[in-house]
Amino acid sequence: MSPADATIRAGLFAVGAAAIAAFTSVMVTNRSVYAGAVTTTRLKWIEQIRNNLIDFIGLLLKHVRRARYDTAYRESAESFEAVAAVNRAIAAFQLQVNPFGAVGKNVAEILNLCVYCSYIKDRNLMFEFTSSAIAKLELHAQWLIDSEWRVVKLEASGPFSWPLIWLGQVIQMRKYEMFCDGEGSVEALITAAGVPERLNYRGAEDSAGA
Questions:
Q1: How far is CA 17 from the centre of its chain?
Q2: What is the structure's pLDDT at 34?
Q3: Does residue 26 form part of some domain?
Q4: What values do phi and psi take at 24, rounded to 5?
Q5: Torsions phi, psi of 181, nearest 5?
Q6: Buried (b) or exposed (e) across 33-65, using 16+ Cβ within 10 A?
Q7: How confident is the model at residue 134 (pLDDT cuts 50, 70, 90)?
Q8: Which domain holds residue 194?
Q9: Would residue 3 count as lying in a domain?
Q10: What angle do CA 208, 52, 174 make, to 5 degrees?
Q11: Is residue 189 part of a domain?
C-alpha cells in the first residue's frame, strides 16, 4: 500500500468515525428529549388521576353523609347534581386509564361499586357499604399510582436499567394479585350489598334495594 492510499484510507476512516459519532449523539439527544417529554406528560397525567380520585371520594362521601341523615335530600335537585358530579368524575377517570391494565380496570370497577352502594335504600347500610367500598378504592388507588410511577421510572431510565426495572414491575404485579385475593378483595362487599352479576352501576338506583 502506497503512502497516498494509506492517507486516503485513514481520512475515510476518520470521516466515517465522525459520522457515526455524530449520528449516535443525535440519537441519544433525541431519545433524551423524547423521554423527558413523555415523563413530564405522564407525571401530569398521574397527578390528574390522583386529583380525579380525590374529587370522587370527596363528592361521594359528602353525598352519602348528607343522604344518611337528611331524608328530603335524596330526592332533591342538590342530590341529583351531586350524583351527576360523581358520575363525571368516574367518566374522567375511565378515559384516563389503560382499559387493559389490571389495576386501572379494578379501580374503575370499584368506582362503580361505590356508586351502586350509594343507591341502597336503607340509609345506614348505604353509608356502611359505601364507606367500605371507598376504603377499598383508596387501597387499590395506591397500587395504581405506584404502578404508574414505575412506568415513569422505566421510561426515564437507560436501556441497561430496563431489565431490573421490568423485573421489579413483574414482582410488584404478583404482589398486587396476592393483595386482590386478600386485603384488597371486594367479593365479600359485593355479596353483602347484593350487587347483581352484570350491572351498569351508574344506572343502578332501582336495583339497589337492600
A1: 46
A2: 44
A3: no
A4: -60, -40
A5: -80, -15
A6: eeeeeeeeebeeebeebeebbebbbebbbebbe
A7: very high
A8: 48-203
A9: no
A10: 80
A11: yes
Residue with the bigger pLDDT between 207 and 103: it is 103
From the list 132, 139, 115, 137, the residue with the least C-alpha distance to 192 is: 132
Q: What is the DSSP string of 97-122?
A: S-TT-HHHHHHHHHHHHHHHHHT-SS
Distance CA 166, CA 100 (A): 18
For the four alpha carbons of 27, 29, 32 and 33, in that order, the dihedral sign comes to negative
In the chain, how many domains are there?
Answer: 1
Cβ–Cβ < 8 Å for 121, 210: yes
Cβ atoms within 10 Å of 27's Cβ, excluding its own: 10
> Which residue bears the cell 421490568?
166
Residue 143's SS3 state is helix
Q: Taking residues 133-148, what's their average pLDDT?
A: 90
Residue 184 CA to residue 109 CA, distance in Å, equals 13
Answer yes or no: are the C-beta atoms of 191 and 173 closer than 8 Å.
no
- The answer to whether the beta carbons of residues 195 and 113 sit under 8 Å apart is yes
Range 147-152 contact pairs with CB under 8 angstroms and sequence separation of 24 or more: 147/101, 147/103, 147/172, 147/173, 147/176, 148/42, 148/45, 148/46, 148/49, 149/46, 151/42, 152/39, 152/42, 152/43, 152/46
User: What's the whole-model pTM score?
Assistant: 0.73
Asked whether residue 39 is assigned to any structural domain, the reply reads: no
